[in-house]
Amino acid sequence: MYSSIATLNFANNTVSKISLYPNPANGKVAISLGNLGNGDAHYFIMSAEGKLVKSGVFGQGVSNTVQTLDISNIPAGSYFVKIAGDGITQKITKLVIE
Q1: 33-68 pLDDT, tens digit each
Q2: Element (H, E) at 13
Q3: How many H helices and E strands in the chain?
Q4: Of the candidates 2, 35, 38, 51, which lies 20 to 30 Å from 15 by C-alpha distance?
């Protein structure tokens, strides 16, 4: 016997996609998001070991957000960029710094 299927909605806003370019990067990287709706989105650049190396905020109510980040002080290696915030579905993507 099977139970009925229920749909759960955890967030009103979603970051539909996250793009990093150029990737691999050297000096600067652009982070592109879809519509942020009414919430702020925070970005975190973390090392492969999980250490936070840079963070910041994308402003509220901005659509098709693109922010250029200075990564010249971050050593070469592989990193993860996490986007999170109130009412925003968390996204994580890989960034390679040369």
Answers
A1: 766 666 677 889 999 999 999 998 876 655 566 778
A2: none
A3: 0, 7
A4: 51
How far is residue 39's CA from residue 69's CA, in Å, rounded to a whole number?
20
28-33: strand order across its sheet: 52-58, 41-47, 77-85, 88-97, 18-26, 28-33, 66-70
Measured distance CA(96)–CA(71) in Å, rounded: 11
SS3 97: strand
Give residues with Cβ within 8 angstroms of 46, minimum separation 6: 52, 53, 79, 80, 81, 82
Each residue's pLDDT tens digit, 71-97: 999 999 999 999 887 766 778 899 999
Residues shown for the chain: 98
The structure's pTM equals 0.75
Hunting for tokens 């986007």 — which residue is that?
Answer: 83
